[in-house]
Each structure stands twice: as structure tokens, then as C-alpha cells.
Amino acid sequence: MMNNNNLEQMKNKLLQQRVELEELEASYLEDTKPVELDQSKVGRLSRMDAMQGQQLAMEAARRRKLQLMNIEAALRRIQSDEFGYCLECGEEIDNRRLEFDPANSLCIECAEKSS
Questions:
Q1: Number of domains present in the structure of the chain
Q2: In angstroms, rounded to a whole number, what is the distance separating the alpha carbons of residues 51 and 54?
Q3: Number of helices (H) and strands (E), helices first, in the chain?
Q4: Could you report the per-residue pLDDT of 22-59, keeping only the tens digit for each?
Q5: Smallest Cα–Cα separation from 13: which of 96, 102, 93, 107?
């Protein structure tokens, strides 16, 4: 069972992760802008590289949004006193697992089953 001090540490870690992800999101907005198709400014291969870079940036943005959603869900679980319990089986999630990633919502057994 997690004590109030540990719970506060987890909350602070989640809030810090959220700030970092939001800062990353803001800094990568330029990378996801549409690629200009003007041949006189950008050669064909350079345009292909830019389009590939754009796709990579879009995938990274999708992953950051998913991480942010998981962080928000974990913060809601803290507020409702449901934090630290597996969403599948209801058992306690090992503290070491939560220390590694406080957004984890599944115990190791349920996480292995779902992968």
C-alpha cells in the first residue's frame, strides 16, 4: 500500500512529465507542418526527406498525446483514491513498477497478458 508521501512523489513526477511533454509538443509543431511542394525551392530527394521527417514527427506527436492521456488518467486515479490498483484485476500494482512509470495502470501480470 502506498503512503501519502509516496503518493505525493508520484503525483509530482506525473506533473513534471506532463510539463516536459507539453514543452516538447510546442517545440515540435514546426516539424509537423505540411511540406512545401515547390520544386524550385526543394529538390525531389530533399522533399522526400522532409516528408519522411514530417511523418516521424507526426508519429512522435501521437505518442506524446497518448502519454499525456495516460498521465491525466493517472492523476485522476490519484484524486479518486484508485491510484496503484490494476484496472484489469484490481490488485495492487508493485511500487517499483509505479516508480518506473507512475502512469502504469496495469499490474505486470495483466500487462503481460494484454501484450
A1: 1
A2: 5
A3: 4, 0
A4: 988 877 766 556 655 555 555 666 777 877 888 888 89
A5: 102
What cell was used for 71? 498521465
pTM value?
0.78
Cell representation of residue 31: 516539424
Could you tell me the residue range of the domain that residue 31 belongs to?
4-83
- 100 within domain boundaries: no
Average pLDDT over residues 53-78: 92
Distance, in Å, from the CA atom of 70 to the CA atom of 111, rounded to the nearest integer, reads 15
The Cα 74–Cα 78 span in angstroms is 6
* 3-state SS record for 39-61: CCCCCHHHHHHHHHHHHHHHHHH
Q: Is residue 114 part of a domain?
A: no
Distance CA 13, CA 56 (A): 27
Question: Would you say residue 68 lies in a domain?
Answer: yes
